[in-house]
């Protein structure tokens, strides 16, 4: 009888409405120990070819999103997951959970999963961000986090190269908005809020406020103490992508800033989770080129200024090291 119920629930994917989102609970406890991956490559990351304007999600042409209902009963839930695992392979399950702003640890932290009819494990087919932003054509690296849809995007010279889920600051400890720059990074940092919290692939973006992105639980809603939580693969990718600051001798002052990072918008606290709206409209979370351009434009001049300065500083350091190495080599020749 239970098996019949399970299969009925699984194949009843088409829902006209979803349950009201659960109110965010207190912060999750320290995650179980997880080995930090050494391989820094991400097979699910692709570089999109520049296009003249933002293309619509693939789902518009090839299908739509379905709702996967999750029962409250633990036994039914566990059995249903076995069916879910049989229907979708590991990479497909990863993509589905990412679309719902969940990691594997928090996979059932919801009563409904939004599931695309066609699974793209790169996630690029479902990007809510424009594929091309001409306003960023001269900006080599740029990372942006959206509070409204709890997602981040990475642009290189205006082309979207990656996007993914995040869990940002909870309502009582919200992440700072505006333009910031990547500072220092550490493969395994310790939280300043609670020493038991380990933060793999931490990359600081606001030194005085202690804000950074790193791997940690993604429960399906904003839950952090102002940091930007990421899936492990995304944390590793961004750790290797972004540039750090360059400090003056002694480390007291900044000589050059790192990769520009922007955080914008507000989360619909207490309302339906934004990605649930995809069930009614596959474009519900899309951010237009015009909206992105209007938001980014006032900061472009500063980003390019800091980018140019960093290149000059990096080149001068490289030249100085080369001269120093040449001088050492010349001294060794003379001594011999």
From TrEMBL:
Instruction: Give the record's keywords alphabetically.
Output: Cell shape, Cell wall biogenesis/degradation, Peptidoglycan synthesis, Transferase
State the residue spans of region: Disordered: 24-50
User: What's an example of a GO molecular-function annotation for this chain?
Assistant: peptidoglycan L,D-transpeptidase activity
Active site (record annotation):
214 (proton donor/acceptor), 227 (nucleophile)
Residues forming the L,D-TPase catalytic domain are 141-264
Q: Which residues lie in Polar residues bias regions? A: 26-43
Which pathway does the protein contribute to? Cell wall biogenesis; peptidoglycan biosynthesis
Q: Which PROSITE patterns match?
A: LD_TPASE (PS52029), PROKAR_LIPOPROTEIN (PS51257)
Q: What InterPro entries has UniProt attached to this entry?
A: LD-transpeptidase, LD_TPept_cat_dom, Transpep_catalytic_dom
Q: Which GO cellular component terms, listed alphabetically, does the Swiss-Prot or TrEMBL entry include?
A: extracellular region
Name the Gene Ontology biological process terms.
cell wall organization; peptidoglycan-protein cross-linking; regulation of cell shape
Q: Which domain of life is it from?
A: Bacteria
Pfam families per the UniProt record, alphabetical: YkuD
- Protein family per UniProt: Belongs to the YkuD family.
PANTHER family reported in the protein's UniProt record: L,D-TRANSPEPTIDASE (PTHR30582), L,D-TRANSPEPTIDASE YCIB-RELATED (PTHR30582:SF2)
| Protein name (Swiss-Prot/TrEMBL) | L,D-TPase catalytic domain-containing protein
């Amino acid at each position: 009888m239970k098996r019949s119920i399970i299969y009925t629930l699984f194949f009843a994917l088409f829902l006209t409405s979803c349950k009201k989102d659960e109110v965010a609970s207190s912060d999750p406890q320290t995650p179980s120990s997880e080995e930090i991956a050494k391989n820094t490559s991400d097979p699910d990351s692709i570089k999109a070819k520049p296009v003249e304007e933002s293309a619509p999600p693939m789902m518009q042409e090839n299908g739509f999103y379905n709702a996967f209902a999750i029962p409250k009963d633990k036994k039914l839930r566990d059995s249903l997951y076995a069916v879910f695992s049989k229907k979708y392979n590991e990479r497909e399950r990863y993509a589905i959970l990412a679309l719902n702003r969940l990691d594997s640890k928090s996979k059932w932290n919801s009563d409904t999963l939004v599931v695309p009819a066609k699974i793209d494990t790169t996630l690029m087919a479902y990007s809510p961000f424009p594929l091309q932003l001409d306003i960023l054509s001269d900006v080599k690296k740029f990372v942006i986090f959206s509070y409204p849809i709890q997602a981040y995007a990475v642009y290189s010279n205006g082309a979207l190269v990656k996007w993914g889920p995040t869990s940002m600051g909870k309502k009582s400890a919200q992440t700072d908005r505006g333009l910031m720059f990547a500072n220092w990074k550490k493969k395994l940092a310790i939280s300043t809020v609670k020493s038991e919290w380990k933060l793999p692939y931490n990359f600081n973006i606001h030194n005085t406020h202690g804000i950074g992105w790193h791997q940690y639980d993604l429960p399906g809603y904003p839950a952090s103490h102002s940091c930007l939580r990421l899936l492990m693969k995304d944390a590793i990718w961004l750790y290797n992508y972004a540039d750090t600051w360059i400090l003056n001798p002694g480390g007291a002052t900044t000589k050059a800033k790192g990769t520009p990072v922007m955080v914008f918008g507000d989360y619909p606290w207490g309302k339906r989770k934004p990605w649930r709206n995809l069930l009614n409209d596959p474009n519900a979370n899309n951010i237009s080129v015009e909206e992105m351009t209007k938001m980014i434009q006032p900061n472009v001049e500063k980003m390019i200024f800091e980018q140019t300065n960093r290149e000059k500083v990096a080149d001068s350091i490289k030249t100085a090291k080369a001269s120093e190495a040449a001088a050492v080599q010349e001294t060794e020749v003379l001594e011999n």
